[in-house]
Amino acid sequence: MITLEHIHKSFGDNHVLKGVSVAVPEGGVTALIGASGSGKSTLLRCVNLLEIPQSGEVHIDDTVARFAPSQKVSRELILALRRKTGMVFQNFQLFPHLTALENVMEGLVTVLKWPREKAETRARDLLHKVGMSIKADAWPSSLSGGQQQRVAIARALAPSPKVLLCDEPTSALDPQLAAEVVDVLAQLARDGTTMLMATHDLRLAATIASNVVFLEHGEVVEAGPAQQVFRAPADERTRRFISILT
Ligand code: ADP
Ligand code: MG
């Protein structure tokens, strides 16, 4: 189980996250939905400490990070949380100078110090899982956006993270290419991969999410099982948000 408790994050005067608490059940997909600017990306980035919250707590497994203003977060803690998370970005962010296979191996070899052979075996398994085996030796620039994102998903999964963080994983893609990525994410969801996914694509959320958290202006308006939030939202603001987009 991953929990975020009372997370506050400001950029200067902009109070972006206002005491956000989210529970991410193990083995499920939690969708973070909300309008652009509501704080979804910032919240994801607070989980792996790409952003450091001013206050609140992040719990992943037995690792707990507690934040307080003017208290520095140790490098060790940042690395510990990074190792328990994998991140998939909207714009893929593959290393352009590495092949698909090398992209997936990179973290295993350089960060986790795996021998190359073992890393390659793991990377080939993951490329197979995302349907990219035949492109193992391809350069990112020769791949479609959907293919690049599938490699990025394999790369994020390589160190066996406790949670896969996905930030708008399909929104840079044409519908057809988005569909291949949704298929891969849906398969991972069926396999029990724990995910926290920011998306404004309600169809994606409805397809694979087990739980939904609706953020508005940096506050959780409503959270619950996906069926319940989508079919019978308790809050008027959730109802409005869902009806605009469906
Ligand atoms: P969402 O992902 O829901 O669209 P974001 O988390 O990207 O929302 O942004 C929420 C707010 O935080 C926005 O007002 C945005 O301008 C601000 N913000 C996000 N990242 C930064 C940053 N690194 N520096 C300053 N402001 C930021
Ligand atoms: Mg965002």
UniProtKB/TrEMBL annotation:
Family, per entry: Belongs to the ABC transporter superfamily.
Presence of the UniProt keyword Cell membrane in the record? yes
Membrane topology per the entry is:
Peripheral membrane protein
Q: Which domain of life, per UniProt?
A: Bacteria
Question: Sorted alphabetically, which Pfam families does this protein's record hold?
Answer: ABC_tran
- What are the UniProt keywords, alphabetically? ATP-binding, Cell membrane, Membrane, Nucleotide-binding, Transport
Q: Which residues form the ABC transporter domain?
A: 2-242
| PROSITE patterns recorded | ABC_TRANSPORTER_1, ABC_TRANSPORTER_2
Q: Which SMART domains match?
A: AAA (SM00382)
- Transferase as UniProt keyword: no
Q: Where is it localised?
A: Cell membrane
User: Which GO molecular function terms does the record list?
Assistant: ATP binding
What PANTHER family does this protein's entry cite? AMINO ACID IMPORT ATP-BINDING PROTEIN (PTHR43166), L-CYSTINE IMPORT ATP-BINDING PROTEIN TCYN (PTHR43166:SF35)
InterPro entries per the record?
Answer: AAA+_ATPase (IPR003593), ABC_ATPase_HisP-typ (IPR030679), ABC_transporter-like_ATP-bd (IPR003439), ABC_transporter-like_CS (IPR017871), MetN_ABC_transporter-like (IPR050086), P-loop_NTPase (IPR027417)
Q: What is its main location?
A: membrane
Recorded source organism is Devosia albogilva
- Name used for this protein in its record: Amino acid ABC transporter ATP-binding protein
